[in-house]
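A common beginner's mistake is to predict each chain separately and then try to dock the pieces by hand. The better habit, illustrated here, is to supply every component at once so that their relative placement is modeled jointly.
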Amino acid sequence: MKKDQSPSLQGALARRTFMKAAAGFAGTTLFGGVTFKAFAQMSSLAPADHCFVFAYFNGGWDVLLSLDPRDPAVFTPERISETRILPGYSLLSNDASFPTNVVRPQGSNIDFGPAIGRMANHFDQMAIVRGVNMNTVAHEVGFRYFLTGKEPNGSAARASSTATEIVGQLKPSVPVPNVAYNIETYNDRYPGYANALRVSSSNDLLLTLAPSPTALDSEIERELVDMHGRRISCEADLYDSRGLVKQYRESQAQMQTVLSAQLDRYFRFEDNTADTAAMRAEKAALRTLYGLRPEGGNDPRTSAAARAALVATALKRGVSQCVSMNITGGLDTHFGTQLTHAQNQRTGWNALADLVTDLKASPHPSGGTFMEHTTILIFSEFSRTPLINASGGRDHHITNSCMLLGKGIKHNTVFGKSGDVGLSAGVIDHRTGAPSATGEQILPDHVIATVMKAANIDYSITRVEPLAGLLA
Amino acid sequence: MNSRFLLSALAVVAISACTKAPTGSEQPGSLTPVELPTDHPNINPLPDPEMNGGHAGRAPRRISVAQLKTSIITVTGRQWSQIDNLASSLGQADYAITVSDATEPNLVFAKFLEDGAREVCLNAARDDLAKMTPDTRVLWPDVPGAPRDFTTLDDTTIGNNLKTMSIRFWGSPFDDAEITAWTETFKKVAARAKTANRPEQAWGSICVAMMTDPRFITY
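With all components supplied together, the output reads:
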């Protein structure tokens, strides 16, 4: 139709269309009537309504010591040929802090091994999944399988990390929605906003949250902030109708919000006389809770406890929605004593127990505690053999367990079971969690589908159904 | 004989096809726009958004880390020292864990680009302060002499230098409306830089603003 109109009329229409589109854009843009500085001030740092933590025990854990214990009075060395299981709890006797038997706190429906540490006290928030078939005893394969919920191709991950999947689908408004602390992260189908900020230490995160190392004069800084929001032209607005520049402006505004909130101070757990009295008191309480000691022991920047404290701070301060982290290592103990493995494993459990204590005690702005708004998955790539090898260690074993806590998950429950002979993976009724001849094996796919269902997002990427009996 | 004649004739035709005598209005190095046929439909400067799903032209894209690295060197002659360390956070693929470049202009990109722009621009400005010859300077080649106090510059000089910088950083000059606003901003910044005795922050902060402007990071 337009081709039949006269050139002058076409020009008028084009101008009108242009102005209409530009006006429409101005109406929709955040900067249409609000200055950049005002927008930056308006943006608040509200915690996500549903937060997620993925904690990885690096090296393959011994589930007999924590999530899938056996009574040493029943599984004795004399019955090894029959049971093919040796709990070996007596081998921890050099450290009196380890119980020598199965742990079951009062009120708990869950048995724990002696390395579970303080985490046993949070039985009221957790579910244990036992008898998970990993289909592999290769480190990177098992790890990437649990991280993505898809069995890798060879050792190559073939799906997004679950945290990326969650952020990709939920599109949270927090400034750094997805943080991967010393852990791999994958994104195979979402735009860059879902990518995790990969940090290898707390210093990397501080670099993002702290003011620029090159400071400008404060008045010049203010002029620069004003310039960030300066409109270029109507024509430029129209070219940006898909919103890339708008998104960049929003990121700059969010950056100003983060910097003006001086969030980096909250992640520097050491005492700092430059902080306000209230902040110093808050940080002192946090150091006490996580046992952070700058002078030694739990280092406030690098220890497992510091990592747990960082997770809690990122969630509570509204910086992130999903945090994945390598909480502890030193578990690939083919040689040596059971004690080393137990100590390393307990370090991770205690750090996570402190995290749960913290989240339980922290009120969430939308009501309830942070723990009621957080789902936690704790996993390792596989478990260790139920028998001790000739070198005094344990090798890789295919039957695994994992722990789920918090929102969307049934609490104080055990789902699934490993065999009493050789700790084999069984077939389980996924509606009840009980062993059943007509049931199915539990795979990491099912666990990840359950986490996604708990997050109320599409889990079809896993191509399996969640563990129905595990959902709250 | 015939084939030699034919080859010679072809050579003459080829040379005449490649050579065009300049017309009276053409100057060496200039281009004359091709005239449209008289019956050609009207061409608007922008595509009609209604005919294009509400959009004008193709979607803009953010530059990749490799492009950013090259762009910084091209406009300032120096490199941001941390760009390789922060490449993965800025979106560069490592082809092991991440197999495609992320070009999302997210908060982390905005933050680190701001850090990088400050480092590069203030270092460039410090170097320029020591240069006596204007055309060897990166950030104020259109400012005569070797001033350390930029509050004495007139609007024309500021405007000319801003236009040079905008072409250097964005490949296109400011329009008149925008240059007025930037000139005013520069005057305030220059006054503050003088008061704080930080002369490098006068043009240095304009450089930061240009490097963190959407026009620098999109194409």
